[in-house]
Structure formats: C-alpha cells, structure tokens
Amino acid sequence: GAGADNDLYINQAIVFIEDAIQYRSINHRVDSKSLGLYRWYYSRTCQWILSLTITVILALAFIEEPSSLTVTSDVRYRLPAWNPPCGLTESIELLCFLVFVVDVSVKSYLIGWEEFWKNKWLMAYILMLIVSLADWIVSLSFFCKESVRIRRILRPFFLLQNSSMMKKTLKSINSTLPEMASVVLLLAVHLSLFTMFAMLLFARTKDKQQDKEWVVYFRNLPDSLTSLLVLLTTANNPDVMIPAYSKNRAYSIFFILFTVLGNLFLMNLLTAIIYNQFRGYLLKSVQSSLFRRRLGIRAAFEVLSSLKETPASTQQSCVSVGALLQVLQKAEMDSRCKQAIMRSLKMCSCDQLSAAQFQKLFEELDKDAIKQHPPSPEYQSHFMQKMQFAFGHPCFGYLGNVVALANIISICVVLVIDSDKQPSERDDFFLGAINCFFILYYLLEMLLKILAMGLKRYWSYPSNRFDGLLTVILLILEIATFAVYGFPHPGWRPEFLGLLSLWDMVRLVNMLIVFRFLRIIPNMKFMALVVTTLLDLVKNLRAFAGILVVVFYAFAITGIMLFKGAVVPLGNTRYSNFLQGTQKDSKAEFTGSCVHNCYISRKKKKQNKNVLSWCSAHFQAGVVYCLLYVLSVHLICRWAKIYFVAWWLISSVIWVNLFVALLLENFIHKWDRRCQRESLSGIEYQRTVELMFRDVLEEPTEEELMEKLHQHPHLQLCR
After folding, report:
1. pTM, to two decimals
2. Residue 440 belongs to a domain
3. Residue range 363-375, pLDDT digits in tens
4. For the chain, which terminus, N or C, has the lower number of CB atoms within 10 Å?
C-alpha cells in the first residue's frame, strides 16, 4: 500500500543521506530488507569488528613462529621466544576468515550479482580467501611444521581492500608506473655504462698493492654493479673511491660524474615526473568525493519526491518539509549539522523544497563549526576585574613561554655541566631548587588563568589542557620526590631506582614544556603555513601510509621465508674465523647496525629472524644499503640481491618520491593562496579538509547527477 511505499522511500532517503555523509557509493540494493542489512553492515559496531579482525590477523605474524615476543633482537642475549602451540593461532585465524567470509558475502549481495562480476576487488577478495583457507588446511595437515605459509603474504590484501582511498591511491600509482619505468630504465643504462667504464678503469694489474679498488669493489661484473648501485644511494660514499683516490686523484672525476648524473639529475628527474603525474591527485580525489556527496543528496531528494503525500507538480519535483524532518530524525549524522539543517527548515517559510533548496540545506555537511568557547566569569569587584584583565591578556601567556624557555635552558645547562661527572660526584641541589621554582610558577599560572577565564573556558583550549595536565603531573612527581628523597639541600643526590628514577622522570617531564611554544605558531605567518601544510598532509596520507604498511608487511614475510634459518649468534665458535675471512677478503664493511648484531650463514647453527626484525631491517635498507652486502654478497646466494634491490626501488626510489610529490602539491597550493585567505573573524564556520580546494572544485550539473541516477542498477526513478 501507499504507507509501505512511503516507509520504503523514507528508508531509502535515510541511507542515501548517510552515504553522502560518508562519501559512499549509492550503487547498492534499495529494497526494505537490503536497506536494513546495509545500515547494519555500515554501523559502527560492524565496522569496528571488521577493523579489529584485520588488525588481529596482521598481528598474528608477530606471535607465530618465529615469534617477535622478545625484549631484544640480539640473538646473543635474548631468551628463547615463546612460540604458540599448533592450533592456537590457527584457531584465531579461522575466526578471522569466517568474519571475512561474512564480509564478502554481505558486500556481494548488497551490490547485486551483476555488479559483483564487474567488481575485480571483490573477486580478488574471494580468491584470496579460498587460497588462504586451502593453505590453512594444509598447515593443519602438517601439524604446523610446513616451511612456507602462502596465506601470510596474502594477509595485507584484507587491509587494502577495506579502504576505498587505498584503492584509489593504488590505481593512481599504477597509472604513474609507465612514466616512472622510463626513468628507471634510464637509471639502469646509466648504471650499466659506468659499470663497464669502472671495470676498464680499475682492471687488475701486476702490482697487488695498487689493486685495492679491484679487489674490494670491482672484481667482477656483479660486484661492480653492486658497488655503483650502492654508490647511487651514497651509502658507500666516499669509501668506494678511497683506494683509487689514494692511487691517483684523477680517479675521483669518475665517481663525481657518476654521482652528479645519477643523484642530482636522474633521481630528481624521477621526482619531477612523479610530481607531474600526481599534481592533481588530491584535487581529483576531492572532486570525486564532492560528486558522491551531491549524488547521494540528489538521490534522497528524488525518492522523497516520490512520496504519495507530495503534491503532484508538472513544473518540477519537490519535497515536503515534514518528510525531510522525519528523515533527519532517523539518519545518523553529526548533531551540529542536524541542528543547523533543522534551524534552516524552521526559518524557511515554504512547505515544499525544490532540488536546489534541498541541496543547499545539506551544504552544512561541508562545513565544520569553529568551536565556541564558554564565556569568562563576570566579576563585580573592581579589583577582580583588573585581575581578570591582567591574567587573561595574551601577554601573560607570552610570559609563560619565556619562563618555559628559561626552564629548558637551565636544565640543559645543568645537564651539560654534569655530563662528564660520576653519579657520586654530582650535586643536584641547584637543579632541584630551580625545579621547585618553575613548578610553583606553572601552578600559579594555571590557577591565575582559571581565575581569569573560568574553569570551563580554561579547559576548552587544548593548549591549556596540555599545560594544566602537565602541571598536575609535575606537581605530583615533585611531591613524591620530596616524600621519598626529602627537600633539596647542598650535596643532595637522589638515588637511581630502576630504569628511570622518580627524579629522572621529573626532569624529562620538564622538557615537555617546550611544547608551550607551539601556541605561538599561528601568529607567525610562514611558520603557520608550513605547519598547516604538514598537518593537512598527514590527514591526506592515511591511504599512502596504509599501502606502505602493506608493502612492509609483505616484504617482511617474504624475507622470513627466503632467509629462514640463516641467523647465528655472534658467540658462535666459528665467528672469529668468519671475521678473519672477511678481513682478508675485505669485501664488505661488517657492522652490527646492518643486521642487528647478527650475521648470515647457511652452514652454521640456524635461527629465524622474526617479523619485527625484518621490518626494522627493511627500514634500514630503505635508507642505507649495507644489508645488500651482508645478506647477499658474501653470505647467501647472490640472487638475494634481487629481493633487496626490489625493496630499495619501492621504498626509497618510488615511495619517497611519491611523498615528496604530495608534499610539493600541498605546499604550493597553500603558498599560492596565502594572500587570498579569508579572515575567519565573523565567520561561523570553517571549511573542512575535503573542501580546502573549494575555489577550484566544479559543482556537478543537474544533468550529470540525473544521468548517474538513471544508471543506478537497483533504483527506478519516476522521471
């Protein structure tokens, strides 16, 4: 009947508005049962369970054998790690798989089977689940003793497919790869040519004393390629040229030319190409989000205009105010936006809303309210009014910053003076006395500000909350120090208790006062520009950070499988022989920082590196390249170089340049608009990050919106 149809239209409008708020696609089933399932799936509880499941299945790698549950990564000192019994992590993993099966089933049903076959991500989702479950069964069949677990490498996919922004980012990176490949090929040609020149320049001679360059770096083609590839990262500069430079200064020209052409020209050319491809990335993303929001709002308008109680009009469709109020009461949205829209509806004199009026009401979603601080207390006393004016003035805050600076300087001076003294020789009387003074000042400052501003207004400022919390912590620690060690006096030396004594904690917390200076950043125009650029970049880099986690995780798991059982303690009896061999060969600089005080050998006692160690190793390999020497050149198969070169290309070459490109785009956009910024004084709302490009965004036309709505696979419009 008409009542059932009206309820369906109301529920459809509620879901479409919630889709618009969250920038979700509206291409899903819109019947009554599907709408209930859809709202349940996107409820906070279900999404929290799904996020927790993804976190748990990714975290299993830190518990599974080889376990990362050790305090230190040094195999000489760490105790045997606890490895869970067979079936424990597998049971948790099965529960996670069941959640993923429910997730993919609900998603597939909601979008419809026709759309499912067009969705490559969902098909890949099902394939990953099938492979993972098959590997899980194989693992139990071997009683968890199998050497290779394919499903561990596939786990990051579950994180990737759950984020629409990560999918968009991956698609953008994929479109940039052809242009990047041309520069990478040019780098390879550059590396190959200079490798041949190096082998000709530093060929073996009769004089063994003059062949150090050949012996150490350019003995054969693989060693020569490796040496110059490492030089491209500057990790072995200037060590690689020292033997040749000692023989003849002119040899330095070769290395200088290689570094200038490779680092200054080709690597920066790669950055320029990536920046050119990503220049409109943020703008396109925001434009797409804006279109989804406008489409969701327009879809809600169209279904509400189909209500039986809406008067028929040959001119244009309209929506009754009562129907919209009914939708707003049931829709999950920010209370501020809901109240603002309801206020606008009450101020509206008409009973029917056109499409333009309907869309304009929901522009409140594009705004973020500037927080209104509670009013200051009104004192009747003339003396209290003067106190309120004095201690509520910004100059009083500046005085606090000066005092905090003096506190930092005094602590630094004392630490420098006592740096070379033995604990028994130090006299902490001076530092204890000045700490008492500064903490009393912070307490007095907090109380005076509360007196001037009132407790509610004082607490409404984040900087005051930080200062107040810090002051309370300092006061508690200082009182505890006096209770344990007594009051400061000449020759006062509080004893060290544990890793950080109470006295050390007081001094460390004092250093946090330096953050008081962050409050002056908005008053410094160019510093504020840099800081806001970084903050906005952090907000827009979540997708990039997620993909970086995926890459780290996949490479770490792959490294465990490839180099499993290759780490031996340094205390091994044959370690000294190994060191002697490397000194004679002089092929690599063997440092503990490269492999965390471990070395690799296939012939010695076997131990496994865990996920945490490999993640740390990859972080180091992204910056320096000594792992390539230690792991692949001397101790394992030379083909292991491919693994580390691939990681270096992805982390240092591609990913760092992507980050630089986004940083440049964000900063240049803000730099160009710094003079056109509107003053926020007198403006009630401030634009959100999604609409920081509001002046260059294009509003979708009515024709575009209606064309998209008519293409909806499950929604039949009346017009």
Report:
1. 0.74
2. yes
3. 877 765 556 778 8
4. N
